[in-house]
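Exercise: predict the fold of this chain.
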Amino acid sequence: MARTLSFLLLLPGLCGNSISGGQPSSTNTPGDLNYELPTANYETQDSYKAGPIGILFQMVHIFLHTVQPNAFPEDIFRKVIQKMFEPSVDFDKVLNYEIGIIICALLGLLFVILMPLVGYFFCVCRCCNKCGGKMHQRQKENGPFQRKCFAISLLVICIIISFGIFCGFVANHSVRTRIKRTRILANSNFKDLRTLLNQTPEQIQFILAQYNTTKDKAFSDLNSINSLLGGGIHERLRPSVIPVLDEIKSMVTVIKETKKALESTKGSLQSLRDGTAQLSSNLTDVKASIQRSLSDPTCSVHPASETCNSIRTSLSQLEGNLDLSQLPPVDRELNNVNNVLRTDLDGLVQKGYQSFNDIPKRVQHQTKNIVADVKSILNSIGSSVDDVTQQIPIESTLSKFAVHINNTESRIHRSLHTLEEYDSYWWLGGLVICSLLTLIVIFYYLGLLCGVCGYDRQATPTRRGCISHTGGVFLMVGVGLSFLFCWILMIIVIVTFVIGTNVEKLICESYANRKLFQVLDTPYLLNENWQYYLSGIIFNKSDIRLTFGQVYSDCKNNRGVYATLHLENRFNISKHLNINEHTESISNEFENLNINFNIVLLDTAGRTNLEDFAACGIDKINYATYLSQTGKHPVKVNLLSFAYDLETKANHLPPGNLRQSLKRDAETIKMIHRLQIIPMEQSLGTLRQSIKTLQHISNGLMDRIAKILTSLDSAQNFITNNITSVINDETKKYVKTIVGYFEQYLLWAEFSIREKMVSCKPVATALDSAVNVLLCGYVVSPLNLFWFGIGKATVFLLPALIFAVKLAKYYRRMDSEDVYDE
């Protein structure tokens, strides 16, 4: 334990002079960086498990707690360490603490004193034919019952003694293998300590290597300044710019649709005018032809006259139904729109888009020099981190520790060879003791076996069989051996009991519940001039609160030696890894950033173009008249129906020229419908659709363009007035991202050096192995189990020999017996 503590105290040399700072809440860096310091895999288990034998150890611990329930005597322990313990003054405290152990020891001494005396007098008494020495047995009515009770009682006691012997054998077997286990445990601990020393340079190199990873990420972001910084500025302006440009672009489409609709309207009007004139001429010719046909004499004869009159009456329907004079031409509006289209508004909008989308390229072009300067600063930060790690004299310190570990390991292995020889004596002595008790209890078992199996109820005491008699002899041999050796066994039990119990309670139990550390951490205990002993040794400043309990707990939790030993009091790593010192240089470089943008969303020509379109006049077209006229049929009557009706009426006339003439006129009307009416109907439909399109476009056109111009002015003013603040805000975000990588890296590096690097867990494990496993688990626990088992067996030898003496009388062959007259 002392060597392990010495090793723990020497560990500060790993950090030369020391470090400080608070623990960061996270070791995750911005972006996709994630640092994880490599950790070692140690062989030695954190906790000791005794295995199945642990149940027996726990049983002993329960007994010890019953015998010695008092708390750890901290005051007495402190006085012993300070050499201020005075037996005359502190005797009562010691007596009060050790009262349970003292009582048990006194009872054992009483057993040691009385058993030889009782054995001596018992032997003399038996030799004088007293105390059952006379080979005569009185016949009693309850004799069979007593014999059975004695046999059962002796059997139960023998079983209890056997369990005690079993505990002794188990404990003794543990002694035989503990040197081998100790050697394995020592090798494992030394291997872990070497792993700790070998891993330290690797951890330092890993920390340095992670700076290159961070720098590469920062360089990647610097090389992508067009998409990160430029893209950020672009996205900030996008909600104000893109909707306006999209509206203007959609207006270009509207202008083109307007021109198309006006051209369609003009063409349809011209087609309708030409068609209407031609239709009117053809209808007049058809009417004249029909009237000439109706002048035939046949029409004056009844009943043909009625048919002719009916035809003559319907001729008034053969007239045009359209009044195109109400539809004004759209030439002026079309000319206005053509004038608007002479300006390439679409090209002007694309220039606005291009001017806005060129922001990332301009940012990259205007920041070349600053990016180069920032990269130089980042390279210098890596040199600073390397300088800090070089200040730690790691190589020389590790070599010293390696020598210390090698020397300690050599001494331990040499000692193990000597201890192995002593352990063989210990094991041999334990084996003799357990074998002696086993021999005694075997005699009892043989006596019971022979006595019970060879007993004949019909045989008188003088005629008992040989087997029964042999059983009685075995019992008496067991009694003799019990008297001969039990007091010697009790002396061994008392000595091991006193030693094992005190070591268990004062060292093992106090180490497990940390009471021992609390005592060692008492101010001015180990050195009357030092408040805290560890800080006095390490820093020569005893007022720094550094305690054994805190150091052990931190090492147990796998903390780094820097934080565990509070080495910030000698070497402040936060000062050497000053984040602000490095990040301020980066921020200063970006403060000199001067990015100039000249973004024009739409120039004056484009603006005028929109205003001209708004004033093109399509909103003044009389759409109601157009819709009214285009909703009419070209002729007052359906010519196709009229022609079929004329044919029907002609068929009612007598055959002759009149009928044939009217049929020819009907065919002419059909041809007019096919060649003129159908095309005119199509032109009317086209004109109606074009008018609806123009009506839809003109509806709120002035307000829409005014709104677009207002939004354009607002967006342009926003860019002009706020571009500088947007650039500054996005630059700060960008700088924060770049700086954030290194802030997080430096925080992680500081945290790793403080909390993770040179983890002292193997030291705490070595201390646990020395005290909890080796001393308590391999030595004290088997020792306590040994005296517990042997002590139990020895104590129960007393009732066993009593019942054996009583029972032997029923199994042995007597020299005389009671005779009764009939």
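Check your answer against the key: Strands lie at 136-137, 816-817.
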